[in-house]
Amino acid sequence: MKTNQQEVGTELVCQWIIQLSYPGTRENALIQLSQKREGIPNLAPMLWHSFGTVAALLQEITSIYPFITPPVLTAHQSNRVCNALAVMQCLAVHPETKLPFLEALIPLFLYPFLRTTSKERPFEYLRLTSLGVIGSLVKTDNEEVISFLISSKIMPLILRIMETGSELPQTVATFILQRILMAETGLTHVCQTFDRFSHVAMILGKLVLSLVSQPSPRLLKHVVLCYLRLSENQQAREALHQCLPDQLRDSTFSSCLVNDKYIKHWIQQLLKNLEPQSDQLMAVFETKKMFFFNSRSEVTANIQLMNKDFLQGTGLISL
Protein backbone atom coordinates (compact mmCIF):
# COMPACT_ATOMS: atom_id res chain seq x y z
CA MET A 1 0.00 0.00 0.00
CA LYS A 2 2.81 2.44 0.85
CA THR A 3 4.47 1.70 -2.47
CA ASN A 4 1.27 2.49 -4.37
CA GLN A 5 0.85 5.75 -2.46
CA GLN A 6 4.42 6.71 -3.35
CA GLU A 7 3.81 5.93 -7.01
CA VAL A 8 0.65 8.04 -7.03
CA GLY A 9 2.57 10.89 -5.41
CA THR A 10 5.28 10.70 -8.05
CA GLU A 11 2.71 10.69 -10.81
CA LEU A 12 1.08 13.79 -9.36
CA VAL A 13 4.41 15.58 -9.09
CA CYS A 14 5.23 14.77 -12.70
CA GLN A 15 1.78 15.95 -13.73
CA TRP A 16 2.23 19.28 -11.93
CA ILE A 17 5.66 19.77 -13.48
CA ILE A 18 4.23 19.17 -16.95
CA GLN A 19 1.41 21.62 -16.19
CA LEU A 20 3.97 24.35 -15.50
CA SER A 21 4.66 24.57 -19.22
CA TYR A 22 1.06 25.49 -20.03
CA PRO A 23 -0.23 28.95 -19.03
CA GLY A 24 -3.74 27.65 -18.39
CA THR A 25 -2.65 25.07 -15.80
CA ARG A 26 0.47 26.78 -14.44
CA GLU A 27 -1.11 28.67 -11.55
CA ASN A 28 -2.62 25.58 -9.92
CA ALA A 29 0.60 23.62 -10.48
CA LEU A 30 2.58 26.38 -8.75
CA ILE A 31 0.22 26.31 -5.78
CA GLN A 32 0.46 22.53 -5.42
CA LEU A 33 4.24 22.38 -5.78
CA SER A 34 4.89 25.33 -3.45
CA GLN A 35 2.66 23.87 -0.74
CA LYS A 36 3.98 20.31 -1.00
CA ARG A 37 7.64 20.94 -1.88
CA GLU A 38 8.93 19.97 1.58
CA GLY A 39 7.54 16.47 1.10
CA ILE A 40 9.20 15.91 -2.30
CA PRO A 41 12.92 15.27 -1.62
CA ASN A 42 14.02 15.13 -5.27
CA LEU A 43 11.83 17.93 -6.53
CA ALA A 44 14.77 20.19 -7.43
CA PRO A 45 16.47 17.74 -9.86
CA MET A 46 13.08 16.87 -11.34
CA LEU A 47 12.38 20.55 -11.98
CA TRP A 48 15.84 21.33 -13.32
CA HIS A 49 16.02 18.43 -15.77
CA SER A 50 12.45 18.64 -17.07
CA PHE A 51 11.88 20.38 -20.38
CA GLY A 52 10.85 24.02 -20.22
CA THR A 53 10.25 24.15 -16.46
CA VAL A 54 12.91 26.68 -15.48
CA ALA A 55 11.90 28.85 -18.43
CA ALA A 56 8.29 28.75 -17.22
CA LEU A 57 9.36 29.84 -13.72
CA LEU A 58 11.40 32.70 -15.16
CA GLN A 59 8.45 33.70 -17.30
CA GLU A 60 6.32 33.97 -14.16
CA ILE A 61 8.95 36.15 -12.50
CA THR A 62 9.54 38.51 -15.40
CA SER A 63 5.83 38.87 -16.15
CA ILE A 64 5.34 41.18 -13.16
CA TYR A 65 8.29 43.48 -13.86
CA PRO A 66 5.99 46.10 -15.45
CA PHE A 67 3.91 46.18 -12.26
CA ILE A 68 6.71 46.98 -9.82
CA THR A 69 7.61 50.34 -11.37
CA PRO A 70 5.32 52.14 -10.82
CA PRO A 71 4.23 50.00 -7.84
CA VAL A 72 0.83 48.67 -8.89
CA LEU A 73 1.31 45.00 -8.01
CA THR A 74 -1.86 43.30 -6.74
CA ALA A 75 -2.10 40.73 -3.97
CA HIS A 76 -3.02 38.02 -6.48
CA GLN A 77 -0.05 38.81 -8.70
CA SER A 78 2.27 38.81 -5.70
CA ASN A 79 0.85 35.54 -4.43
CA ARG A 80 1.32 33.86 -7.80
CA VAL A 81 4.90 34.96 -8.38
CA CYS A 82 5.83 34.12 -4.78
CA ASN A 83 4.58 30.59 -5.37
CA ALA A 84 6.97 30.47 -8.33
CA LEU A 85 9.78 31.78 -6.11
CA ALA A 86 8.99 29.16 -3.46
CA VAL A 87 9.31 26.44 -6.10
CA MET A 88 12.52 28.06 -7.36
CA GLN A 89 13.89 28.02 -3.81
CA CYS A 90 14.16 24.24 -4.12
CA LEU A 91 16.74 24.76 -6.86
CA ALA A 92 18.72 27.17 -4.69
CA VAL A 93 19.02 24.81 -1.73
CA HIS A 94 19.51 21.39 -3.35
CA PRO A 95 23.21 20.40 -3.70
CA GLU A 96 22.68 19.00 -7.20
CA THR A 97 21.08 22.15 -8.60
CA LYS A 98 22.63 24.96 -6.51
CA LEU A 99 25.68 25.58 -8.71
CA PRO A 100 23.85 25.18 -12.05
CA PHE A 101 21.29 27.61 -10.62
CA LEU A 102 24.09 30.12 -10.03
CA GLU A 103 25.85 29.47 -13.33
CA ALA A 104 22.60 30.25 -15.14
CA LEU A 105 22.56 33.62 -13.31
CA ILE A 106 19.00 32.99 -12.16
CA PRO A 107 19.34 34.94 -8.87
CA LEU A 108 19.78 38.11 -10.92
CA PHE A 109 16.13 37.88 -11.96
CA LEU A 110 15.19 38.44 -8.30
CA TYR A 111 17.19 41.64 -7.85
CA PRO A 112 14.47 43.93 -9.28
CA PHE A 113 12.19 42.69 -6.48
CA LEU A 114 14.84 43.47 -3.86
CA ARG A 115 15.10 47.02 -5.24
CA THR A 116 11.44 47.79 -4.58
CA THR A 117 10.66 50.15 -1.72
CA SER A 118 6.85 50.09 -1.47
CA LYS A 119 5.54 49.27 2.00
CA GLU A 120 2.37 47.63 0.63
CA ARG A 121 1.90 44.00 1.65
CA PRO A 122 2.23 42.53 -1.86
CA PHE A 123 5.69 44.10 -2.11
CA GLU A 124 6.69 43.14 1.43
CA TYR A 125 5.74 39.55 0.63
CA LEU A 126 7.63 39.70 -2.67
CA ARG A 127 10.82 40.99 -1.03
CA LEU A 128 10.61 38.49 1.82
CA THR A 129 10.17 35.52 -0.51
CA SER A 130 12.99 36.72 -2.75
CA LEU A 131 15.24 37.05 0.29
CA GLY A 132 14.25 33.49 1.20
CA VAL A 133 15.72 32.25 -2.08
CA ILE A 134 19.00 34.10 -1.44
CA GLY A 135 18.98 32.87 2.16
CA SER A 136 18.73 29.30 0.91
CA LEU A 137 21.81 29.85 -1.24
CA VAL A 138 23.94 31.05 1.69
CA LYS A 139 22.75 28.78 4.49
CA THR A 140 25.56 26.32 3.78
CA ASP A 141 29.23 27.27 3.44
CA ASN A 142 30.08 27.76 -0.23
CA GLU A 143 32.69 30.24 -1.44
CA GLU A 144 31.33 30.12 -5.00
CA VAL A 145 27.95 31.34 -3.77
CA ILE A 146 29.50 34.17 -1.78
CA SER A 147 31.73 35.22 -4.67
CA PHE A 148 28.73 35.26 -7.00
CA LEU A 149 26.65 37.39 -4.64
CA ILE A 150 29.46 39.88 -4.09
CA SER A 151 30.27 40.19 -7.80
CA SER A 152 26.59 40.64 -8.65
CA LYS A 153 26.36 43.69 -6.35
CA ILE A 154 23.82 42.28 -3.91
CA MET A 155 25.34 44.02 -0.88
CA PRO A 156 23.72 47.44 -1.47
CA LEU A 157 20.33 45.76 -1.91
CA ILE A 158 20.70 43.77 1.31
CA LEU A 159 21.88 46.80 3.26
CA ARG A 160 18.97 48.93 2.06
CA ILE A 161 16.46 46.31 3.19
CA MET A 162 18.24 46.13 6.54
CA GLU A 163 17.87 49.90 6.84
CA THR A 164 14.32 50.45 5.59
CA GLY A 165 12.49 47.11 5.74
CA SER A 166 10.11 45.74 8.35
CA GLU A 167 11.34 43.26 10.95
CA LEU A 168 11.01 40.03 8.96
CA PRO A 169 12.83 41.21 5.81
CA GLN A 170 15.38 42.97 8.01
CA THR A 171 16.07 39.75 9.88
CA VAL A 172 16.53 37.62 6.75
CA ALA A 173 18.65 40.32 5.09
CA THR A 174 20.86 40.56 8.19
CA PHE A 175 21.21 36.78 8.21
CA ILE A 176 22.38 36.93 4.58
CA LEU A 177 24.94 39.59 5.51
CA GLN A 178 26.06 37.41 8.42
CA ARG A 179 26.61 34.43 6.12
CA ILE A 180 28.51 36.57 3.61
CA LEU A 181 30.76 37.85 6.40
CA MET A 182 31.40 34.32 7.66
CA ALA A 183 33.16 33.53 4.39
CA GLU A 184 36.71 34.84 4.18
CA THR A 185 35.88 36.27 0.77
CA GLY A 186 32.98 38.21 2.22
CA LEU A 187 34.83 39.52 5.27
CA THR A 188 37.75 40.62 3.12
CA HIS A 189 35.43 42.36 0.66
CA VAL A 190 33.61 44.35 3.34
CA CYS A 191 36.80 45.34 5.16
CA GLN A 192 38.81 46.07 2.00
CA THR A 193 37.85 49.76 1.88
CA PHE A 194 36.74 52.26 4.48
CA ASP A 195 33.61 53.13 2.50
CA ARG A 196 32.38 49.53 2.46
CA PHE A 197 33.06 48.95 6.12
CA SER A 198 31.59 52.27 7.21
CA HIS A 199 28.40 51.61 5.21
CA VAL A 200 27.94 48.20 6.85
CA ALA A 201 28.79 49.59 10.30
CA MET A 202 26.35 52.48 9.84
CA ILE A 203 23.47 50.15 8.91
CA LEU A 204 24.23 47.79 11.80
CA GLY A 205 24.36 50.78 14.14
CA LYS A 206 20.96 51.99 12.94
CA LEU A 207 19.53 48.53 13.54
CA VAL A 208 20.85 48.54 17.10
CA LEU A 209 19.20 51.91 17.75
CA SER A 210 15.90 50.72 16.29
CA LEU A 211 16.01 47.62 18.48
CA VAL A 212 16.07 49.81 21.59
CA SER A 213 12.49 50.94 20.94
CA GLN A 214 11.33 47.80 19.11
CA PRO A 215 13.15 44.82 20.63
CA SER A 216 13.53 41.67 18.52
CA PRO A 217 15.81 38.96 19.92
CA ARG A 218 16.09 37.13 16.59
CA LEU A 219 17.15 40.30 14.74
CA LEU A 220 19.49 41.30 17.57
CA LYS A 221 21.11 37.88 17.34
CA HIS A 222 22.10 38.32 13.70
CA VAL A 223 23.26 41.90 14.27
CA VAL A 224 25.54 40.77 17.10
CA LEU A 225 26.90 37.91 14.99
CA CYS A 226 27.74 40.37 12.21
CA TYR A 227 29.65 42.55 14.66
CA LEU A 228 31.35 39.50 16.13
CA ARG A 229 32.60 38.37 12.74
CA LEU A 230 33.78 41.88 11.85
CA SER A 231 35.78 41.95 15.08
CA GLU A 232 37.99 39.19 13.67
CA ASN A 233 39.43 41.59 11.09
CA GLN A 234 42.18 43.82 12.44
CA GLN A 235 41.18 47.00 10.61
CA ALA A 236 37.50 46.50 11.44
CA ARG A 237 38.35 45.72 15.05
CA GLU A 238 40.22 49.01 15.39
CA ALA A 239 37.27 50.90 13.91
CA LEU A 240 34.78 49.11 16.16
CA HIS A 241 36.59 50.50 19.19
CA GLN A 242 35.10 53.84 18.15
CA CYS A 243 31.84 52.97 16.38
CA LEU A 244 30.39 50.01 18.29
CA PRO A 245 27.06 51.27 19.71
CA ASP A 246 27.05 51.94 23.43
CA GLN A 247 23.83 49.92 23.68
CA LEU A 248 25.89 46.76 23.10
CA ARG A 249 28.32 47.75 25.85
CA ASP A 250 25.82 48.55 28.60
CA SER A 251 22.65 46.90 29.93
CA THR A 252 20.26 48.26 27.29
CA PHE A 253 19.34 44.80 26.00
CA SER A 254 19.44 42.98 29.32
CA SER A 255 15.75 42.07 29.05
CA CYS A 256 16.40 40.39 25.67
CA LEU A 257 19.31 38.43 27.11
CA VAL A 258 17.49 36.88 30.06
CA ASN A 259 16.18 33.94 28.04
CA ASP A 260 18.93 33.79 25.42
CA LYS A 261 22.30 32.78 26.77
CA TYR A 262 23.77 32.66 23.26
CA ILE A 263 23.29 36.35 22.49
CA LYS A 264 24.68 37.27 25.91
CA HIS A 265 27.74 35.11 25.33
CA TRP A 266 28.28 36.53 21.83
CA ILE A 267 28.16 40.10 23.14
CA GLN A 268 30.66 39.17 25.85
CA GLN A 269 32.91 37.59 23.22
CA LEU A 270 32.58 40.66 21.00
CA LEU A 271 33.63 42.97 23.82
CA LYS A 272 36.49 40.63 24.65
CA ASN A 273 37.65 40.74 21.04
CA LEU A 274 37.78 44.52 21.27
CA GLU A 275 39.98 44.49 24.37
CA PRO A 276 43.50 45.69 23.47
CA GLN A 277 45.23 42.72 25.11
CA SER A 278 42.77 40.02 24.05
CA ASP A 279 44.10 36.79 22.65
CA GLN A 280 42.93 37.07 19.04
CA LEU A 281 43.57 33.44 18.15
CA MET A 282 41.39 32.28 21.01
CA ALA A 283 38.73 34.80 20.03
CA VAL A 284 38.61 33.47 16.48
CA PHE A 285 38.34 29.90 17.78
CA GLU A 286 35.47 30.82 20.09
CA THR A 287 33.62 32.64 17.31
CA LYS A 288 33.95 29.73 14.88
CA LYS A 289 32.78 27.29 17.55
CA MET A 290 29.68 29.36 18.32
CA PHE A 291 28.76 29.67 14.65
CA PHE A 292 29.10 25.90 14.24
CA PHE A 293 26.44 25.30 16.85
CA ASN A 294 24.02 27.98 15.72
CA SER A 295 24.38 29.21 12.15
CA ARG A 296 22.88 26.23 10.35
CA SER A 297 19.96 24.32 11.80
CA GLU A 298 18.75 26.98 14.23
CA VAL A 299 18.95 29.88 11.79
CA THR A 300 17.33 27.84 9.01
CA ALA A 301 14.47 26.97 11.34
CA ASN A 302 14.10 30.64 12.26
CA ILE A 303 13.79 31.66 8.60
CA GLN A 304 11.20 28.96 7.94
CA LEU A 305 9.24 30.09 11.01
CA MET A 306 9.44 33.73 9.99
CA ASN A 307 8.19 33.00 6.50
CA LYS A 308 5.32 30.92 7.86
CA ASP A 309 4.33 33.58 10.39
CA PHE A 310 4.42 36.30 7.77
CA LEU A 311 2.45 34.40 5.14
CA GLN A 312 -0.26 33.45 7.60
CA GLY A 313 -0.44 37.02 8.83
CA THR A 314 -0.83 38.57 5.39
CA GLY A 315 -3.43 36.12 4.15
CA LEU A 316 -1.76 36.21 0.74
CA ILE A 317 -1.30 32.47 0.71
CA SER A 318 -2.97 29.55 2.42
CA LEU A 319 -0.48 27.27 4.11
From TrEMBL:
One GO BP annotation is: regulatory ncRNA-mediated gene silencing
Give a yes or no for keyword Nucleotide-binding in this entry. Answer: no
Gene Ontology terms: cellular component: CCR4-NOT complex; cytosol; nucleus; P-body
Q: Which SUPFAM superfamilies match?
A: ARM repeat (SSF48371)
Ordered alphabetically, the record's keywords are: Activator, Cytoplasm, Nucleus, Repressor, RNA-mediated gene silencing, Transcription, Transcription regulation, Translation regulation
Pfam families named in the record: Rcd1 (PF04078)
Subcellular compartments? Cytoplasm, P-body; Nucleus
Family to which this protein belongs: Belongs to the CNOT9 family.
Entry protein name: CCR4-NOT transcription complex subunit 9
